[in-house]
Amino acid sequence: MLMNAPAILNEILQALKDLYQKGEEHIIYINKIPLTEEDRLAILDVLGEGQVKIRLESKTQPAEWRETGVYGVWIGVFFDRDNKPILETIEITTFPHMASSQREDIEESIRLLEERLKVLLQRDA
């Protein structure tokens, strides 16, 4: 029996409109909503399968995002150290933020690349 699938799909539709018209992104924490197995299957069936899959290989909190067949809608799953799902999301965005490079990582990469470039130039001199 469908309980919450229609409401979630309507929320996704409105969020897609907001993303398109206002640039606003939205996250639905689906493991915090009571969903029947029929709800889950209906949501996945309506959204369909996309072509992009992103996997974050982290020892502390691996994660995976799958693009759905509806552009701008991503399903994310965060895992614990034992690879058990601990958080499931539906993100309405152009690209999942947690999969993006974080500001502090970019800062570290600048230092790393500067050092590597310095070593290369010293080696070539």
Mean pLDDT: 92
CATH uppermost class: Alpha Beta
The succession of helices and strands, N to C, reads HEHEEEEH
| Unreliable spans | none
**Which strand-content bin applies to the residues?**
25-35%
- Strand count: 5
Based on CA inertia axes, which overall geometry fits? elongated
- Give the second-level CATH assignment, the architecture: 2-Layer Sandwich
Q: Per CATH, what is the topology?
A: Ribosomal Protein S8, Chain: A, domain 1
Radius of gyration: 19 Å
Family: Belongs to the HupH/HyaF family.
Organism: Hydrogenobacter thermophilus (strain DSM 6534 / IAM 12695 / TK-6)
Protein name: HupH hydrogenase expression protein C-terminal domain-containing protein
Pfam families: HupH_C (PF04809)
Question: What can you tell me about this protein's structure?
Answer:
The protein has 125 residues and is an alpha+beta fold. The protein has one domain: HupH hydrogenase expression protein, C-terminal domain (Ribosomal Protein S8, Chain: A, domain 1), CATH 3.30.1370. The protein is 41% helix and 26% strand. It contains three helices and five strands; from the N terminus they run H-E-H-E-E-E-E-H. The chain has helices spanning 5-22, 37-47, 103-124; strands spanning 26-29, 49-56, 63-68, 73-79, 85-92. It has a five-stranded antiparallel beta sheet with strand order 1-5-4-3-2. A hairpin with a 6-residue loop joins strand 2 (49-56) and strand 3. The protein is elongated. The termini are far apart.
